[in-house]
Amino acid sequence: MYAPIRVQPETKYEAEVVVLVTSLGAKRTEFNAGKRARDLLEIKGAHHKIIDFNRDARQAGTGDAENKAIAKLNDDGKLKSGANNDLILPQVFIDGQYVGNGTDLQGLEDDGLLENILMRRACMCCNSSRRTPDMTQCPACWVKFEEILPGEMTISQALQEFHELALDEYDEDEDDDDDEGDEDMMLPAVTGMATEFPEERGAHREGYGELPVDAALLRSAAFQPGEQVQYWSDSKNRYVDAVVDNIRLKEGKIVYDLNCKRGAHADKIRGYDPASE
């Protein structure tokens, strides 16, 4: 299995990129070449759909979608084989057209061509810049643009996985029941009314991009993003003023990211009480 994405994909790259690889360590040359192709795309921020020819890895991952892609490419006669009829790996397809292996992909990047191809502003076969994102056929060489897995393994799903991974990594060193270090995390006390804090505070966390808040989750939450509350600090043995930055689910339960504590449970939070000051 390949590691999860580490760089947030950019939505400006609209083209579907499918990369055929193998995660089988015994095929070291193919494995390393596939990793280089993936690293190039990931560093660039281009979402790509990985089709792993390691059958065991497919069964443990997105097997149905990957098998569908392999079947379609095989039926269309697009899979490339070597002299001994061995499958060449990696293989890179953009909007259904074969653009080569990892070296060819790097060549497109080095020549300054990959950017417009990924943005659907140039043809991957003839490099014509007359292409627009809504075209299904190149106006110069007439090659057809067709996604291999339309609606599957999408950038929206990749972004969701990226945000979930980012939150999990952020929480690794946090213990929900231990607020040691609260003092270091404390921001200046908030004394204004809750309406002074826009809801957008809960929708963005620096370094992790936009974190969408589910409407149903908001309705069931006791406290809302931007709301001024008080959090019980075990280390201080008292309530401290706080603001709800975000609401999310962790292990099936609603937790609150406060400006002084991440992942706080509702039983340690109460509404803001001016009389307690």
From TrEMBL:
Superkingdom as given in the UniProt entry: Eukaryota
InterPro entries (UniProt xref): Thioredoxin-like_sf
Protein's recorded name: Uncharacterized protein
Organism of origin: Effrenium voratum
